[in-house]
What does this fold into?
Amino acid sequence: MSHANAALTPRQRLRLAQKVVEDAWTIAAAASYFRVSWRTAERWARRYVEMGEAGMQDRSSRPHSSPNKTSRILVRKVVHLRWKKRLGPVAIGAELGMPASTVHAVLTRCRVNRLSHVDVRTGEPARRYEHATPGALIHVDVKKLGNIPDGGGWRYVGRSSGMRNRAVTAKRTGRRGIAGDMVTGTAFIHTVIDDHSRVAYAEIHDDETAATAVAVLHRAVGWFADRGVTVERVLSDNGSAYRSFAWRDACTELRIRPKRTRPYRPQTNGKIERFHRTLADGWAYSRHYNSESARRNALPAWLHAYNHHRPHTAIGGHPPISRLTNLPGQHT
It folds into this structure.
């Protein structure tokens, strides 16, 4: 591409070439008039004769042939070692007798230079998908978090104070674990996220039973409907709540097609798994909470910030709500 201070832009090249070819100017006269060298003027006039106006555009600086380019056989070996053994450029270079810099160039060209681009279990390139419209698929799951004892948990007040707060809170609530020991309990965050827009919905409950999951689904579908989104399919893992008849009947009632991930393949539901990490970093463990109720009260404000203000890297740095183009009052 021509730089800002170029003497000859494509339009000026065309004028120069036309002066020489059509108006019978000499190369020297055209070069003097357009303030370029004789060789430059001759080149653009020759290209105009050979290619017409199309020849006035910039050409790629890539060579027509690269005799020293890495052979296809070596490229396949490099990529194979990257996929199957997850080796780095130095290790691959040592095994194949190639410079590490050459191996890195091959990995970059094949877009497997980052291990995050390669599936951990299979070694194959990660297959990413995104449904074309909001509501075409929603992901559902449950995130479990230990309740925060009164006075704060060990992450912020230290181990000794945290254990003391936990014992006092457990004694006050009277909750006991399976082994009969006093516990503070568990918070079950039922999360729903739209595959296309990444808009999220969440509720906190004290269990993950089918009845609770079904109730959350009904409210989530209504919440999305208020924002102009019609849910068509729902993807879940193989938890007991999502394999129940109640879940099946609820999906039938809502005219939603239920889908489940392959066993032991959480990557299929990766969008909501990644959302759980964002949820933990941005809300659950982001600051000191004096009690579990304080943390739960902070969830709605964080969800609003996530949906309406937080830039999402997977959708071009825009907030998720920006992908819902039919919100009530958006175009008024």
